[in-house]
Amino acid sequence: MKTFQEFGLEPAILRAVTEMGFEESTPIQEKTIPLAMEGRDLIGQAQTGTGKTAAFGIPLIHKINMKEERISALIMCPTRELAIQVAEEIEKLGRFKGIRSLPIYGGQDIVKQIRALKKKPQIIIGTPGRLLDHINRKTIKLDDVQTVILDEADEMLDMGFMDDIQSILKLVPEERHTMLFSATMPTNIQRLAQQFLRNPEHVSVIPKQVSAPLIDQAYIELHEKQKFEALSRLLDMEAPELAIIFGRTKRRVDELAEALQKRGYAAEGLHGDLSQNQRDNVMRKFRDGSIDVLVATDVAARGLDVSGVTHVINFDLPQDPESYVHRIGRTGRAGKEGTAWTFVTPREIDHLHFIEKVTRHKISKKPLPSLAEAIEGKQKMTAERILDVLQNDAQFEFKGLAIQMLEQYDSVNLLAAAMKLLTGDKKELNIELTPEDPIRARKKKFDVRSSGRRVGGGYGSGSGDRRQGGGYGSGSGSSNSRYPRKDGGRDYGSNREGGEGRSSSSRNREYGSNNPGNRDRSRAPRKSEDTLVNK
Ligand SMILES: Nc1ncnc2c1ncn2[C@@H]1O[C@H](COP(=O)(O)OP(=O)(O)OP(=O)(O)O)[C@@H](O)[C@H]1O
Ligand SMILES: [Mg+2]
Fold first, then answer.
1. What is the best residue among 305, 322, 331 to mutate for testing ligand 1's pocket, by most ligand atoms within 8 Å of CB?
2. What string of H, E and C letters represents the secondary structure of 44-97?
3. pLDDT for the residue 428
4. Residues whose CB is under 5 A from ligand 2 (ion)?
5. What is the pTM of this model?
6. Which spans does this entry mark as compositional bias, Basic and acidic residues (predicted)?
7. What was the ipTM of the complex prediction?
8. pLDDT at residue 492 in the model
9. What distance in angstroms lies between residue 518's CA and the mean position of ligand 2's atoms?
């Protein structure tokens, strides 16, 4: 791999990269940085956690002219949390050059954002809806924008952001540099690329499987009613440093987070019905380790980079292979290993096989963890906690009493009693979750069709890309079309764009939070010919 010195970057950027601990470039960075520095439009695809943010961030910052007082670059992201995170990475990379960047997302006080915009940031990182709000209020002007980046471009399409993106890009000069990035590039991205990119270079560093290689993937077949018990046992057995548990709906996430808390786990939920403050708080606690289990809808599936996430558990099977790839990609990042477990009910097995086929990776079947394994796991954890205290803390204040107790009691019994106390046992609490419907695959729709030109080694030929010619097909019209979402159960937050002066297209996508199951069908309805059915 190339070192960053070899790209001919400005010293200020090299210094930032060194401070961030990057020693050499990752494969996607090695390929895209030189092209992007030349100003080539590109579609960049590389596995989750392989540094795509810096792959666009570094050349972007290199190109920014510090004399520029107007917005010269725009980065669009599908979720607020991702916009915040990308902004932080850009801030770190641009620190020594003195780059001014600003995240702009829904749910945050717009007046505060307007004030921050007065400081003349050169780079804006935002979610499409709130960006449009500012454009309509004329608090953001794009006529000097030279570079546009769409992070998780495919997801923004799926979320129904096409109209918003089109409206935004119409205001950016045509003479611009545009780049798309994602770990997954379904064929529908071609349309977006054709419309917005000029003669793009397809840069793909996806070897043979789409999911990141350092993730150990397993599934457990079980019944809906067994899921919670299995989850507690898994958490006890595996003792994750940090874990993300994905649930299908907001209701599921709420119930699951509460149930885990009752059982004594430091868990909190994240979904789109929470206020932005609550969302920020949960993310902060997860990042600083004050909670170690994050229960989330797919709002957390894309792009989030939290170091220390050793486990991802799909409590509910994801709707589609892309979602699976991104969800499990929250672990096994930046060269670290990770473990992903997926719960599958018997009726969902076909769907799991479909995911395996599309991602070209066999997911190994594991038995339900036994109670004995869970207990053993918990006990081991207690022993580790004790040893940790032994090594890191002075225990003087307990020593006097310890000596006294040891004079009266057997040392092994004493330690065992202390361990029992530390381990705790909340297993007796009876937890009942509202069942979720199984996801089922409609087999005939998985027919293999030749995908024409594959985008950068996507899911590969023969994988039967179900979306081709499907919901994004020609029938959906052009600029004012409603790009149908491929599923109805995903959640990005009904209030994801704040609700202040939202564009009509965004508003139409909103869906109340009080629909059955508290499911967010906020964006366009599923087309009946979609391949994945949530019955
Ligand atoms: N060259 C590098 N050396 C070491 N670490 C790096 C390097 N480049 C990026 N990283 C770190 O790797 C982690 C993952 O990077 P990033 O979030 O950009 O991945 P990604 O490819 O965008 O993943 P996703 O598809 O999930 O969005 C981050 O913590 C980032 O700081
Ligand atoms: Mg990313």
1. 305
2. EECCCCCCHHHHHHHHHHHHCCCCCCCCCEEEECCCHHHHHHHHHHHHHHHCCC
3. 62
4. 52, 303
5. 0.83
6. 484-500, 518-535
7. 0.99
8. 55
9. 28
